[in-house]
Write the structure tokens for this entry.
Amino acid sequence: MGATLINILIVAWISGLGAFLGALIAGLERFRETRLKREVIHGVIAFGGGILLASVAFALTPEGIKDLSALHLALVFVAGGCVFCAMDIWLSKRRGSMAQLMALLMDYIPEAISLGAVFGYNPKLGLLLALMIGIQNIPEGFNAYRELRQNQRRLRIKAILIIFFGISFLGPLSASIGYFLLQERSVITASIMIFAAGGILYLVFQDIAPQARMRRHWTPPLGAVLGFMVGMLCHQVLI
């Protein structure tokens, strides 16, 4: 039990460091503004959106579909979308958009909880969640850093990087909750994942996908295709 828990905590933390790595890359990036750079940035945003959709399709919703009744599934999924719609409206009125950071946290925390809950009896699903968390956190951290720099100008670069390093420790904390409290509570675990899936889907279509589009440029949305492909391949290899 002890060794398994330690492994889960380490894996969850390493996966969370992907967000810090993405933010660090964004913070160190100093290329001058060109059309190519703008295309790349929009492509990274699209990639993050694509891999978020993959996490909804292959990591978050399958367990819910398996363990929840149709009514429960529908209510929790819609509730996730509605709650994050309300949060998005509130944040936009008061402090500017934080959709990328919200999506990162909505993805990372429920998946880390689920990782802790399922790793003991389904290591393959646990590894899939860990791998997808780590991969998707890099572009999500990159995009969330740029969003914070744009909308929260009072925050300094160092402060933002400290925030993202701190976020990485939410993984072990969430995984511990899943491990100790939810291993035998599949309905609760599935409900958390479905709620997160509804919130992520709202954020992707409301905030993230529109940011990926550029007028008279057609390649950035291919990033979404690549992001979804990465998630799909992770699912195929590990499940």
